[in-house]
Write a structure and sequence with these properties.
about 950 residues, alpha+beta, Glutaredoxin, Neuraminidase, 6-stranded mixed sheet, 13 helices, 48 strands, globular
Length: about 950
């Protein structure tokens, strides 16, 4: 039994930890259901008005999509609405962590549509339409009702670009940002071939793939007729070949279509940039990133004296605040704290008047908070603003008394004033229109921000003393965003009036607008200091910070985006139905200015809602699989798998059964309860194996061994933060080996039957801030502690303890080589004790390379590893003929050295000769199966360097470990 315990532990010990954020649940949601003609809409009480918008938008989308796809589902579609992205991130409908780039999802088994609101009704309607398209598409492809088999195998062959392109086409959300990303890819020759977009898991620029997919489907609808769109899903129900589908629908090869579509894009976008400039014409780039290493440098903000610029960058793998000199040098990271996310919406960073403090919004323990950071010593102060679900665009008043910000409540955003000294919160606007990018006037008597009306962001000017709100722009001025005051009566902002986001200025009194730039990419988030404007600019897949000098003449009024081409789609506007002195102690609010719109929504929803009921837990199957067979020696054999859950995903049950009568029986069941602040797992298993023992030399049967393992495990994991978690585990396992049908004349001796009960308790802690690039870790660190104890209580027969600590650190050296170079280090220490202690097997992959697997054993081990890694070929994206389903993505190399120590018994002084060391090199080839499943193949050779032999060991593994 010692051997069994050791093997179990080593499996735990060597399995690599793949980075995953924790879900933090802090909110109880009182779920209800609106039933409409075609939907069951799940919502919680605080978002009832938002859910009524969802009722109207969903039914409108249903009518539109069914016409486009030519199919009307018979069953009602379940639709889950969360009032903000933070709540959405806690959903259990998927057990995966949802990053901030996920705007919604549709799961195939129960056909559940899940999405949050983000404050914008336009975006809410577009995402809703997109996801409902997926739900109806799944009904066409997989059939309605139970769909386990069809879902699994068809999903492997259905090109994702077709699915996402159809959804984007139905949502009709090709906006200025989408055009910008696609235009940039065309101009810089970065288009992803459609045959390399059958799955998106391997892509770095996923949003680009979405827009390419939409463009391709839009092109088909315009060039070949909208009636051909609905044929795609119907043909894919029977066909697995994209080539065959295109020949049947468009009467041409897929490769011919792709060339034709790509040529159309080149004509369209090369025509659009004629007469336009690169950002460098208006001033220098302060950051220099390109597609070789995708980095977003966002939301620049000048310090009050103009000498420094604070900004948010993803160069360390997560959104982090940096400060640089105004010439782009002297970059520092002022706050080393590991934020759970820095918000970059609107004007994201605000300075204090003395230039010592920064104000920004971020997440902590799953909640949004306002942060005050001291740039001199890195100290942070947190303000939790009660009553606001989401916080963005904080702007400190010139006298430092108030912070203007945009806050979201129940799915709708408004402008607020927050007084840090008292905690007082004053609501300035009160409507369902999205507000963003708030900024103070220089005399602190007014605010300027953008407000969404009928799908267009318009500039608003608000006087604090009078409470008067004035719309400064009309829909004809385009989407106007992130306004900032540059003088008492002038504001700087960005607009897509001519189809590209550019810098503009406006004189408030006369509403005279002047265009300041004429770029081919896109300008965002301006910050003003004297005659300089810092802004974020999109180019070559990245966002870089530029500095603009206001000394150039400009007149760009005659340059709209005019090219549409023979297959272009003309877009229609989308629509959805000195400080604050003692004289202004209480700024006036606008009051509700959307009452008529709200009444229309309430009335329209009431006509569609047939029932409003409280949610009750009920289980239904997600997957059911069964296999039956028969053999002359075994009789009937079978296997089955059943997965059940409730609609919210809070309760999950899985049952697995395999049976070969007389030889093998396996039964496992697991229950996950995910509605608590911690995750609870209950696991039960029974495994019975029968072995007939034969003499190899004579072939004579001499005994039968019946081996049985049965047990149960309870595991509880509590997330402390996004990156930290603690857990406790209790398990009990009964193991028995029983010999029967013994042939005593065989000459073999038997020790007799064995029976053990192993009762174990374990505690563990895990901290993981590792960031990934090129599909391996590049920065951050990982730390874990694990303690396990087995005791002879409650009938237990074994007593031992296991203790383990591991630390990993990754250093991004890309700034040195420009070739994605990483230095990785690892240290592990572990020991066991007790009467029945297990022993570690040491040597080989994950421990000491250069040694054979399990060459050494001991009850105490310690080792360190160091690796220098480099990506030598990136985004190869070629398929291994004739294995067309197997794609090679990246080729990476590593050189490494491992050193360790294995001891048994009392740990005394360490002799230098006891140190074991190995060194070697390796190649990792990143591959993808069907462009969906990541499969890194690692080849390594190593030899011992603590002794003088020349024996090289070869290792192969499929792993992202270490």
């Amino acid at each position: 039994m010692k051997k069994i315990a050791a093997v179990c532990f080593i499996l735990l010990f060597t399995v690599s930890s793949v980075f995953a954020y924790n879900k933090i649940r802090t909110k109880d949601m009182d779920w209800h259901i609106f039933e409409t003609p075609h939907f069951k809409i799940y919502y919680y009480k605080s978002e009832e008005l938002l859910a009524k918008f969802g009722v109207i938008y969903a039914e409108e989308a249903f009518e539109k999509i069914t016409k486009i796809l030519g199919y009307t589902p018979k069953e009602k579609i379940p639709l889950f609405i969360y009032e903000n992205p933070v709540d959405f991130g806690t959903t259990n409908i998927t057990l995966s962590y949802l990053g901030e780039g996920t705007g919604g999802f549709t799961e195939a088994y129960k056909n559940r549509v899940v999405l949050p609101a983000n404050g914008s009704l336009k975006a809410f309607k577009e995402v809703l339409t997109h996801e409902i398209t997926h739900a109806i598409s799944f009904d066409i492809l997989y059939g309605e009702g139970m769909r386990s088999y069809a879902t699994l195998y068809k999903d492997l062959f259905m090109p994702l670009w077709v699915m996402e392109g159809l959804a984007e086409h139905c949502a009709d959300d090709f906006d200025t940002r989408g055009e910008m990303v696609l235009r940039d890819a065309v101009i810089n020759d970065r288009l992803v071939p459609l045959n390399k977009a059958e799955g998106f898991s391997h892509l770095e620029e996923v949003y680009l793939a979405y827009k390419e997919a939409q463009s391709a489907i839009d092109y088909i609808a315009s060039k070949y007729g909208a009636e051909n769109i609905q044929k795609f899903l119907k043909f894919y129900t029977d066909e697995l070949s994209t080539e065959a589908v295109f020949r049947q629908i468009l009467k041409k090869d897929f490769s011919q279509f792709e060339k034709e579509w790509a040529f159309y894009l080149k004509k369209k976008y090369w025509a659009q940039i004629q007469g336009r400039d690169e950002a460098v014409k208006y001033g220098p780039a302060l950051t220099q990133n390109d597609h070789r290493n995708l980095v977003y440098n966002l939301a620049p903000s000048f310090s009050p004296d103009g000498s420094r610029i604070a900004y948010v960058s993803t160069k360390d793998g997560i959104k982090t605040i940096f400060i640089m000199k105004n010439d782009g040098t002297g970059i520092v990271r002022p706050f080393l704290a590991e934020f759970e996310g820095v918000d970059t919406n609107g004007n994201a960073i605000s300075w204090s008047k003395d230039g010592k403090l920064l104000y920004f919004a971020g997440k902590k323990r799953g909640k949004m908070a306002l942060f005050e950071g001291n740039v001199e010593n890195g100290a942070l102060k947190e303000y939790e603003i009660e009553g606001l679900d989401i916080i963005s665009s904080p702007a400190l008043s010139p006298d430092g008394r108030y912070i203007a910000l945009c806050g979201t409540v129940s799915g709708f955003s408004d402008v607020y004033l927050y007084e840090p000294a008292t905690g007082k919160l004053l609501r300035i606007t009160d409507n369902v229109y999205e507000n963003s990018g708030v900024s103070w006037s220089q005399d602190a008597t007014a605010l300027v921000f953008s407000e969404e009306h009928e799908g267009v962001n318009r500039l608003c000017h608000y006087e604090l003393k009078s409470g008067v709100k004035q719309l400064l722009t009309t829909a004809e001025a385009g989407n106007c965003e992130t306004p900032v005051f540059s003088a008492e009566k002038e504001i700087i902002f960005v607009s897509d009036k001519n189809g590209i986001f550019n810098l503009y200025s406006m004189i408030i009194d006369t509403k005279e607008i002047r265009q300041l730039t004429n770029v081919s990419g896109g300008v965002f988030s301006p910050s003003v200091s004297g005659d300089f404007i810092a802004y974020s600019y999109y180019e070559d897949g990245c966002y870089n910070i530029y500095k603009y000098l206001r000394n150039a003449k400009s007149d760009f009024s005659g340059l709209p985006l005019s090219y549409y081409g023979e297959a272009g789609l003309k877009k229609e506007n989308s629509s959805d139905t000195a400080g604050i002195t003692a004289a202004v102690q209480e700024p006036k609010t606008t009051g509700q200015d959307d009452l008529e719109f709200r009444e229309e929504i309430e009335s329209g929803a009431a006509e569609l809602i047939s029932e409003n009921k409280k949610y009750t837990t009920a289980f239904s199957p997600d997957m059911i699989f069964a296999i039956l067979g028969a053999g002359t020696d075994t009789g009937i054999i079978g296997a089955g798998y059943l997965q059940l859950s409730d609609m919210l995903g809070d309760h999950n049950i899985a049952v697995l059964l395999n049976a070969v009568p007389g030889y093998y029986t396996q039964f496992e069941t697991q229950y996950l309860y995910m509605a608590l602040p911690f995750d609870l797992s209950l696991y039960f298993f029974y495994n019975q194996n029968t072995y007939k023992l034969y003499d190899f030399e004579t072939g004579d049967f001499f005994s039968r061994l019946d081996s049985t393992q049965a047990g149960a495990t309870v595991d509880m994991k509590y997330p402390l933060t996004l990156y930290d978690s603690v857990g406790i585990n209790f398990s009990s396992q009964r193991v028995s080996d029983r010999y029967t049908e013994i042939n005593y004349s065989s000459g073999y001796e038997f020790d007799g039957d064995r029976f053990d009960i192993i009762n174990v308790a374990a505690l563990y802690y895990e901290h993981d801030t590792v960031s990934w690039r090129d599909m391996w870790p590049v920065s951050g660190n990982y730390f874990s502690l694990y303690v396990q104890a087995a005791e002879k209580m409650f009938g237990g027969t074994r007593s031992y303890g296991v203790y383990q600590a591991e630390f990993r650190k990754y250093f991004d050296l890309n700034f040195i080589s420009g070739m994605n170079t990483v230095f990785a280090s690892r240290a592990v220490a572990a020991m066991t004790d007790g009467d029945d202690k297990p022993y570690f097997v040491f040597g080989g992959i994950n421990t000491l390379r250069g040694a054979g697997y399990g060459e050494f054993t001991g009850d105490k081990i310690g080792f360190v590893s160091a690796e220098l890694r480099q990506t030598v070929a990136k985004n190869l994206n070629f398929k291994l003929w004739p294995l067309e389903w197997w794609m090679v993505k990246n080729i990476k190399t590593q050189a490494f050295i491992d050193s360790g120590l294995v001891k048994t018994g009392v740990l005394e002084a360490i002799n230098e000769k006891e140190i074991l060391s190995g060194a070697g090199v390796g190649v990792t080839i990143d591959t993808f199966v069907l462009q969906r499943q990541f499969m890194p193949m690692k080849f390594e050779v190593a030899k011992r360097i603590d002794k003088t032999d020349d024996i090289w060991k070869f290792y192969f593994s499929i792993s992202t470990g270490y």
